């Protein structure tokens, strides 16, 4: 295989599949090799904690492309194969069997891995994580009527799996390190909405929980022991305590790594002809004026186009605002924008917070930094436009449902 125009994509998720698509769409005629360490062709992860886990979506719905798409577009799939090294000097990747593959341009879309729990008993066979399709299948099997499920972690994965377990009729307890689930992500006002949602659906929330160990015998967990002496019986334990970007290859290859693979706004890494996209990329965001690593589906969906254009010699910029969504019970939510704890003055609400049908705006001075719609539809584009405009908006107009959001745009 000649390295002259051979493009190699490392990763088996949405970013990898979309990058192959974008390269073909924008005129790359040379070979494309996509290397994934799973046996499945590239697939999308949100259904694993949402529709697929709930049994509402079939397995076929999770894939980025139909099975024959890769053959039709002359994209070589090398599945069930790990890349063990990147030799940037020789412009080659080394595979687990020792084979070396040359590249002209390389995209690292290596994603992330669940953070493992490091307490005694964490290795028991019914301590479950969620990242791959097989993990979702194991959770689905564990979530049965009357099963006692303890979820460690009150982030998005923890709450979505809790909702799926509760919907299946399981008894669910969520252990949260801080005072409220999602407190660090959303701030108190919005976090209380999600806490109330789960409590209304019969989930027991256990704030400020410190896990001492997972109890059990013969390799099987039977409960979780907390530092305060509380013992929670469990038929399965779900761990959702965050993810770690898969940077090992990049680090060993001498790329700049800092909370992910550092890239510029074109998704170029610190080494020529190597790009990064998706969960693993800590990309400079020109609109926000800082590097940002976003662990959500929308980045894996949209970044590959920018990376592909860069690989083809064009100067595309990725400046799309972060976006994520969740579905829990009868609540659907979309969020766009960016703010950090302490990075905003206040939250302005429009609509019925008590009924969980509202829009929330995170404000700095008179500017909207981020917005979230809960059970209010077809407004996220207007919220995005409002944030991007950077214009001053009056709280009373933002809070008034009678005032169309588009009318607040300059």
Structure description:
By secondary structure, the chain is an alpha/beta fold. The chain has three domains: about 5-115 and about 245-310, FAD/NAD(P)-binding domain (3-Layer(bba) Sandwich); about 125-240, FAD/NAD(P)-binding domain; about 330-410, FAD/NAD-linked reductase, C-terminal dimerisation domain (Enolase-like, domain 1), CATH 3.30.390.30. Helix content is about 25%, strand content about 30%. The strands form seven sheets. A five-stranded parallel β-sheet has the order 3-2-1-7-19. Helix 1 packs parallel to helix 9. The mean pLDDT is about 95.
Largest sheet data: 5 strands, parallel
Number of helices: 11
* Coarse morphology: globular
Q: What is the radius of gyration?
A: 22 Å
Q: Give the CATH topology of the largest domain.
A: FAD/NAD(P)-binding domain
Cross-sheet strand order for the largest sheet: 3-2-1-7-19
Query: If you average the pLDDT, what whole number results?
Result: 96
Could you give the count of β-strands? Answer: 26
Percent helix range: 10-25%
Strand content: 25-35%
- Give the CATH superfamily of the largest domain: FAD/NAD(P)-binding domain
